[in-house]
Structure formats: C-alpha cells, structure tokens
Amino acid sequence: MRVPVDIFSSAARVLHVLMVGLWMGAAALCLLLVYLVPDTLDSRQAAEAVLAATRARLDLYGVMAGPGALITLAVGWVPMNVPLRLRVFLCLAATGAAGFGGQYLLPRMNELMAAMGRPLEELPATDPLVGQYLELSTVSFVALAVQVAAAFLLTLTAVAAAKPKKRYGGLEF
Fold first, then answer.
1. Considering the chain, what is the average pLDDT of its residues?
2. Backbone torsions φ then ψ of 167, nearest 5 degrees
3. Would you give the distance in Å from CA 89 to the centre of its chain?
C-alpha cells in the first residue's frame, strides 16, 4: 500500500505549526519574564539566574526546532508550490539568534557574573564588568526579540498558507 504524498505534506505542516507555535509562545513568555521576574525576587542576582536558566532552555529548544522547522517547510510546502524564501530566512534568523544566545551570550554573561564576585546590585554602575554585563544583557534581549518576531511571522505565514489555493476558470479560492 502506497501512502499519498498529501498525507506526509499535511502532517509536516501540522508539525511545523506546532513546533514554531511552541517556540513563539515560549519566547514570548521569556520576554514577559524579563519584566516580571526582577520585581518578584529579592535580588537582581537571583532574577538574572532565573532568566539565564529560562533562556538556556529556550535557546536549546530553538537550536533543535530550527532545523526541524526547515525540514517541515521542505516536506510540507514544497509540494504546494508556495514561495519559501521568507520562511527559510525567518527559520535561519530565529535559529541563529537562539544559537548565538545559547552558545555565546549566556556563557559569557555567566562568566562575567562569576568574575564580579559580588551581587550585581552591590557593584557600582561605573564598574567595567557591570557595563559589559549590561551590554550583553541588551544584546541577549534583542536576540530573544528576534526569536519572538521570527517565530510569530513563521506561525502567521504557516497558518495563512495552510490550505492550497484552488483555481477554477481563472478564479482563486
């Protein structure tokens, strides 16, 4: 018995929407935590530790889900003749942001926290390590925002093109 390509294509599209939607939701939640956690915990050091642990898990998921999203794009949308350049770019951008955050930014931020030797709130704002840490924190926030935006646009384009267009006598439905 031969399974039609449409079944694999449909399953790939569903899997793609689930993977990217989960990525978008987790990244958006992580962005929300950036604003909520510092106010709820006693010290900024504890808040940074919670955020770093959350980001590490999100970045790991992003590095794993990005290639999966590219594969599901190929299997799910190529048979539908849908343009994929924007989607491939968004997958690569989100995966790159996750990899950059998880492989470079977070380890470097952890090294700076260890080198400071004291809690962040006890150090003067003029300390060069604090300045470097805040710069990396800003870049980390931007990388997180890239993941949210790219995953949102991927989800939006996936849902918008989930049904193949049918043509009847020159009319598209």
1. 87
2. -115, 130
3. 13
Cα dihedral sign, 148-154-155-157? positive
In 103-113, which positions are buried (b, 16+ CB within 10 angstroms) versus exposed (e)?
A: eebbeebeebb
**Cα dihedral 48→49→54→58 (10° resolution):** 80
Q: What is the DSSP string of the chain?
A: -PPPHHHHHHHHHHHHHHHHHHHHHHHHHHHHHHHHHHHHSS-HHHHHHHHHHHHHHHHHHHHHHHHHHHHHHHHHHGGGT---HHHHHHHHHHHHHHHHIIIIIHHHHHHHHHHH-S-GGGS-TT-HHHHHHHHHHHHHHHHHHHHHHHHHHHHHHHHHTSS---EETTEE-
Contact 65, 23 (CB under 8 A): yes
Alpha-carbon distance 10 to 161, whole Å?
Answer: 12
pLDDT digits (tens, 9 = 90+) for 63-106: 999 999 999 999 988 888 888 999 999 999 999 999 999 999 99
Cβ atoms of residues 31 and 81 within 8 Å: no
CB of 95 closer than 8 Å to CB of 138? no
